[in-house]
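Lecture 7, part 2: worked example. A protein chain together with 4'-deoxy-4'-aminopyridoxal-5'-phosphate.
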Amino acid sequence: MSMKLARRWSNFGTSIFTEMTQLANAHGAVNLAQGFPDFGGPEEVLKEVARETLHCHNQYAPAIGEAGLRAAVSSLVKSRTGIEYCPDEEVTVTTGATEAIYSVVNAFVNQGDRVVVFEPCYDSYAQAIANAGGVLVPVRLHAPDTPAGLANGGWAVDWDEFKSATSAGFALMILNTPHNPTGKIFTPAELEKISQCVIGNDAILMCDEVYEYLTYLPDGPSVSPVALSGMRSRTVRISSAAKTFGFTGFKVGWVTAPADLMRDIRLVHQGVVFCTNPATQRGLATMMADKQWIAGYLAGLPEIYGAKQNFLAASLSKSGFRVQRAEGSYFLMASYETHVKGTAVRDVDFVKTLISGARVAAIPPSVFYYGSQAPRRLNWLRFAFCKTDETLTSAAERLEGWAQRSLSTV
Ligand code: PMP
Ligand code: GLN
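Predicted complex, written out as structure tokens:
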């Protein structure tokens, strides 16, 4: 048989998350690579989902999502952004944010269309763009140890580069804030520049805000670009129960967008999955509609995840890494410059040393560059801190023991 993978998919292999998780398992390593909480989400949600699983029809849900969940999403998004979305026309439930990304990109990107993406970026964007036949136009986020990063105190956009990347126009821009893998939250001033550019190009902004409730800025939560002047009519906003409730296995996400854009997104969504399982949607809806419960639950997240970040950051620092703390998300980036001083060691190689030597797994961020080569010197790894205290303690012991052994021989 001469059947071959379609060319548009030929640049992709097994996901780095699968690869690192397999490697971690093979070495008995603590998995700080794949971003999933190894503790359960709220039991109240599980109980409702279990109840619905036993008692609801368990047949196809409405393609646009269960009415109760769409209403709950609408009210949650309103309390977060101040923007009101009609649950019937402007909210759609998807099979995780992954499907939302795929459906949105494929709804708006034609063959040859330019799609602006900040790199390093989450892998689904590149795959969805490739499937649509679009051209990924990268804008680099410069690392904290580069001149642009040092000037900015963290991962930084060079606005001259941004201008030249966008000057030929584009159909869609993809923004992820809080950002995976860097943990960056785009500032209101940065969002203003981005919005002006999207408006000036009469383009659409797809904003992936799956980490919207996991933020650690002293002056409050991240700002959503949808709230900026002129942006509601051209922003498609994505979020997900995976991050908000810590159940990555639920695969329930949602999109909010103005009705005209939503009609197109729904067409693709209908063709890709048609609908998402009803029991999970209904269980989530019940708890999300409980105003007192949801407010208390969401308000507690920064403290819980913030303490985990503090713990891991302290241990990595003790182990000779330079930590760039996450402003949001459940990932922090740490530079291993000290461990390789004077030598050039690629992150994909260093992470293997860490997995076999320390028995702790992380993600090499060079795999998140799709529209350009990763910088030659990218001595950073991404560590997930969405783990139990026991898991983090075990990782810390291993990292510190390994660092003592390896730094003493440098
Ligand atoms: N967007 C980003 C930035 C992510 O990190 C992830 C995965 N963790 C997703 C989307 C996918 O979310 P889901 O699991 O809901 O498909
Ligand atoms: N989003 C998660 C991460 O960044 C993993 C998603 C996946 O495994 N596909 O680690």
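The CA atoms of residues 81 and 227 lie 6 Å apart. The first strand starts at residue 30 and ends at 31. Keep this in mind for problem set question 3.
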